[in-house]
Prior knowledge:
This protein is mainly α. The protein is built from 9 helices and 2 strands, in the order αββαααααααα.
Amino acid sequence: MDAFSKLPEEINHLVSEFSSMPVVGGLGAGLTQYSVWLLVAAIVFAAIMLVFIKRQTLVPRGVFVNGVEYLIEYVQDDVAKGVVGTEWRRHFPFLATIFLFILVNNFIGLIPGCKPGTGAIGCTAALALVTFIYFVYFGCKKHGVIGYIKSLAPAGVMFPMNVFVWVIEVFSLLLRPITLAIRLFCNMFAGHIVMGSFSIMATLFAEPLLEHFSAMNALGALPSLAWLAILLIIYAVELIVAFVQAYVFTVLAAVYIQIAEAEGH
C-alpha cells in the first residue's frame, strides 16, 4: 500500500519532467529541453546521412548501409511512388527527409535519459507547418493561387452546394497541420508517460528491498518483476510506434501533396 500511496506524487513529478522547460534563455525566447533534443536529432540525422553517403557503394555492404538504404527505398516505393504517383521524384527528397528526421527523433526519445523532439506540441507543430506550406506551395504552383483556391471545391458540384462544400474543404485544409501535429505529439508523449509510469511502479516496489534486504522485503518486491516485464513489452511496442508514427505522418503528407496537385479536385 505504501508503494501505491507514493504513486500519484511520482506520476505528477514524471509528467512535470516532460513539460517544456527552458534550457537556454526564457520560455518565450530561448531553447527548451525539447528544442535541444530536436537539435540533437538534427545533428544525429545529418551525421547518419553523411556516413551513409560516404560508405555507399554500387553494391550496398554492411548492416548500417543496407538498413538506411532499405528505409529510403521503403519511402520511395511505398510512399512516394505509391501515394504521390507520377510526380513522385519531385517530392521524394522532402518525404524521405521528413520520415527519417521524425524517425530519428522518435528513436532518440526511447534512449533512457533522452526525450523526443516530437514529444512537444511546439516541435510537432513546426513539422506540420512546414508540411502544410510545402503542399500548399506546390498546389499553387500547379494550379495558380486562384486556381488552387477554386480547386478546393470538387468539380461538377452545382451552385450553391459548391460554395458550401468549398467552405468545408477550406476548414479541412486548415485542420490538416493541426491534426498532423497533435497526432504525432499525443502518441509520443503518451507512450513515454506510460513507460515512465511502469518504471516508477517497478522502482517503488523494489525500493524497500534495495534499502534493506529481508525475506519480507524480497516478497514485497516480487510485483516489480511483473511491472518490469510489462515495461519491456511496452518498450518493444514503442519501438514499433516510433516507426509507425513517422510512417503515418509521411503518408499523410504524401496524400496532401497528391490532393494539392490533382487535376479536377
